[in-house]
Write a structure and sequence with these properties.
Length: 498
């Protein structure tokens, strides 16, 4: 057993509780939050290395062996996502220092930030499907607060819609868990995999599997993404970056874990269902990305395209595709966070999010412009940046399985991403300079704010380069994660062994 596995959940949870009592001391909240996320980053890196060297790590809470007790499991997929979440949250926290504003800081921004991180990490590490539901709810309740914090009319309207959608999906989630327990009598994921294979009740289990696909699809923004563009446009950029980088990825992780481990393929052709949903998501997301003329919506629809592309890898399901899915998932979390950071800086600089009212910002903010161009190319999959290895592996896997139509849609979605983001770059940074917000350099407070915004952005940009240039070394970790997804017996044996 490895007691380190509880720390990615316990550290932010305890930090959040402490911060609740420090409402009026912004400096203390900042220091404690920073120490917590940096400790989480170290713990995440240690867990990844332990899994790489020693194999899948488990923690049986209270000494109760599966299927009776609560179990935490870190295979390489979960470990990599915990580490990536730590990187994104560390960057997001320091970005928030310079952009979120003192009013939000005094109204529990940092405790809710930590609760969100606890829910995200718990979702990745739990080996029990009911505790997955619990961690989802911790994450969602924190996201409700972060979404409405500030109290603008737009935030209140979008929060109501966001809460309603998630209440419906959470109700379906707990009902699905109840039905599943009623059929097989266990909720431990490894034990579920064995029992479902043995029962042979294809009809009812197929219905339950479809219910889980609907639930996780809603939470990931897979096809049923109608709630996402508006909801992610309402909060400030620091919060939107966390949502775009982390929340949809938890839903995708749940889809990957559920349909590679729990539900065997012989029940029904789940991959074809996911393939159709992925295709629809990429097509509709692409339409949205080119149809709108404001930065917030364009970035949000690019999140949707990314969700569809990752689901494309899951639908193909062979070794190359699963390795590519893991690699692209890690890249997408980093790149989307950076994209939202830069989008927020552009909106602040121009005083508007309308592309038609922007122009010529490359003169005042060249670093923001060139960073935006680089991350756009990374999201397209231009070598040697971070998006290339994952996209190459997924496309190769799709061609190897004969999924030519789905692969063609995936490649076309990359061209749409290129067009939508280059359009933003050209209209915002080139051309004639238009009315912009006052130069940040003339305001000492704004200058400090911009420094705190630049540092985490450069940090994530370096990771984008590292994921591309060091792809060969990183692939040894990624392939270890893909191996468990293709051979779920490795996960089952690690969890259920005495």
């Amino acid at each position: 057993m490895n007691n380190l596995l509880v720390l990615p959940l316990l550290l932010p949870l305890c930090t959040a509780v402490v911060l609740v009592f420090l409402k009026n001391s912004v400096s203390a909240q900042r220091i404690i939050s920073a120490v917590s996320v940096l400790l989480n980053l170290i713990v995440g890196a240690v867990i990844v290395q332990q899994v790489h060297e020693q194999g899948i790590q488990t923690l049986h809470m209270g000494g109760w062996m599966p299927p009776y007790g609560i179990v935490f499991v870190a295979d390489m997929l979960a470990a990599l996502l915990v580490l990536t979440s730590a990187l994104v949250s560390a960057a997001g926290l320091f970005y928030a220092f310079g952009t979120i504003g003192e009013q939000r800081e005094k109204h529990y921004f940092y405790p809710f930030f930590q609760f969100l991180l606890a829910g995200v990490n718990g979702s990745f590490l739990t080996g029990d499907i009911f505790n997955l539901f619990v961690c989802f709810e911790v994450m969602l309740i924190a996201s409700y607060a972060l979404l409405v914090l500030g109290g603008t009319k737009l935030q209140i309207r979008e929060t109501l819609k966001y809460i309603l959608v998630n209440i419906v999906s959470s109700t379906l989630f707990v009902a699905s868990v109840a039905y599943l327990y009623g059929v097989v009598g266990t909720l431990n994921m490894a034990d579920l995999s064995l029992r479902i294979t043995e029962t042979g009740q294809g009809g009812i289990l197929s219905v339950i599997a479809i219910l889980f696909l609907i639930v996780f699809g809603l939470k990931a923004g897979l096809f049923l993404f109608f709630w996402l563009p508006g909801s992610y446009s309402a909060p400030p950029p620091a919060v939107a970056a966390l949502f775009g980088a982390l929340l949809t990825k938890v839903g995708l992780y749940a889809i990957i874990r559920t349909f590679t481990l729990i539900f065997p393929q012989q029940l029904f052709d789940i991959q074809s269902w996911i393939g159709w949903l992925a295709a629809g998501t990429m097509i509709l997301g692409g339409i949205g990305a080119v149809a709108y003329g404001d930065i917030r919506r364009i970035l949000n629809y690019n999140v949707i395209i990314g969700v569809g592309f990752i689901a494309f890898g899951v639908a193909v399901g062979n070794g190359d595709a699963m390795n590519g899915t893991v690699y692209y998932l890690v890249h997408d979390m980093i790149a989307k966070a950076l994209l939202f950071f830069l989008g927020g800086m552009m909106i602040t600089a121009a005083g508007t999010d309308k592309l038609s009212e922007m122009g010529g910002m490359i003169k005042r903010y060249p670093a923001v412009g060139w960073m935006f161009l680089i991350v756009a190319l990374a999201l397209v999959g231009i070598p040697p940046l971070s998006g290339f290895p994952g996209k190459l592996l997924i496309v190769r896997g799709g061609l190897g399985e004969g999924e030519y139509w789905l692969t063609a849609i995936g490649v076309a979605s990359s061209l749409i991403v290129l067009y939508s983001l280059i359009r933003v770059f050209m209209k915002a940074f080139w051309g004639e300079e238009k009315n912009t917000a006052p130069d940040a350099g003339n305001d000492p407070k704004a200058r400090i704010s911009w420094k705190l915004a630049y540092i985490p952005s450069v940090f994530l940009l370096l990771i984008v380069f590292i994921l591309g240039f060091a792809a060969e070394g990183i692939y040894s970790y990624v392939s270890q994660a893909g191996e468990v997804l293709v051979q779920p017996s490795l996960y089952i044996e690690a969890v259920l062994k005495e």
